[in-house]
Amino acid sequence: IHSKLPAIGTTIFSVMSTLAAEHGAINLSQGFPDYPCDPALLDALAAAAHAGHNQYAPMAGLPALRAAIAAKLLLQHGTAVDADSEITVAAGATQALFTAIASVLQAGDEAILLDPSYDSYAPSILAQGAKPVHVALMAPDFKVDWEQVEHAVTPRTRLILINNPNNPATSVFSAADLDALAAIAERHDLLVLADEVYEHLIYDGATHQSVLTHPALRARSFAVYSFGKTFHATGWKIGYCVAPPALSAEFRKIHQFLVFAVNTPAQHALAAHLADPASWQGLSAFFAERRALLAPGLESAGFKLLPSQGTYFQLADYSAIRPDLEDVAFARWLTLEHGVASIPVSVFYQQPPAQKIVRFCFAKQTQTLQAASERLARLG
Ligand code: PMP
Ligand code: GLN
Questions:
Q1: What is the rounded CA–CA span in Å between residue 116 and residue 167?
Q2: Which residue has a Cα nearest atom 9 of ligand 2?
Q3: Ligand nearest to the CA of 197
């Protein structure tokens, strides 16, 4: 086979979850909750299926769901979004990201990524015959040097990808970051792909700075969201993309032939659930409590914690525990020898910096976090 993606292996999330399962480790690697989602959401799903909503949904998404998303965005940001021409429901954020990338990148184009970057971005760009151009952000705060980003722009650059809050860095953008991004995008006429799947998971009084609230960015961005994150249901694989009509039209040209439409009964259930703002408000407080449950166990095991400003992940420096190991080897060792699975951070860099950091997911039940802490205590 003449491989299209010769350098791409299996995603780290499959690798670590498989390893965790094989060795009976507590899985704090791949990001997903281990507690049930709201029973009302499950009832709404069953009700929609029993009501006969079991055939194809409209290509761009169920009108009721798109209307509920538009109403949410108006309440959340005061931003008016046209449900018909600016919102497309996708099979998860992963598909929305791939679709947005495929709809605007041609062979030979360049797209700028800020590393550590979520692992689907670079392969999605490479699959178009385009080139990912990586700008590295450094621990512990992963601040963006926007001058460095602008230096990475060439006449072939078409797109900048951002992830705010950032997985795995857990950093969040300030309003000044958005201004700096907008200035670069305008000066070089670039499009922006904003992965905002963790929009509601933001801590310590910080506020989410969405591209949808920034007029200059709103005009040139795809913004991508995931119900998997917001409703604790990663297995539902439904998300959406918000973009101005001309960008949404290009997005739908790909979307219609990649998936055509997304699971119909689930879209009905999500529309009903989203109508109640309580379904997405209060998530920060909920996850801040989870974060606080995991932190002491990690610290007493000898990890040095980095600030977790957003997402449901905690970064931890293990240099005091096994300075001899690279992070991939450390994550494997911790899974096999101590029964706790994590994600090495170097895999999210094109050129990994010399740092010893792994990522733990705290979207877990109290008993899971306590059990992990007990296992980790044997390290200290
Ligand atoms: N972007 C980021 C930053 C993520 O962490 C994830 C994983 N949840 C996704 C996109 C993919 O989301 P989905 O499960 O909806 O495809
Ligand atoms: N986004 C999840 C994480 O960062 C994983 C999703 C996936 O496995 N594709 O852990």
A1: 8
A2: 13
A3: 1
Q: What is the span of the domain harbouring residue 349?
A: 12-30+282-377
Residues 345 and 303 in one domain: yes
Sign of CA dihedral 70, 72, 73, 77: positive
Q: Summarize the confidence of residues 91-103 as an average pLDDT.
A: 98
What is the reported pTM?
Answer: 0.98
Regarding whether 332 and 303 lie in a shared domain, the answer is yes
Torsion angles phi and psi, residue 47, rounded to 5: -65, -40
CA dist 205 to 77, 202, 288, 311, Å?
Answer: 17, 8, 11, 14
Peptide bond into 132 cis (omega under 30): no
Can you tell me the ipTM of this complex? 0.98
Q: 376 is written with which tokens?
A: 């980790």
Q: CATH code at 231?
A: 3.40.640.10
349 Cα: distance to centroid of ligand 2 (angstroms): 16
Question: Are residues 227 and 140 located together in one domain of the fold?
Answer: yes
Interval between CA 50 and ligand 2 midpoint (Å): 31
Taking all residues of the chain, what is their mean pLDDT, rounded to a whole number?
Answer: 97
Cα(369)–Cα(374) distance, rounded to whole angstroms? Answer: 9
Q: What is the pLDDT of residues 253-271, one digit of tens each?
A: 999 999 999 999 999 999 9
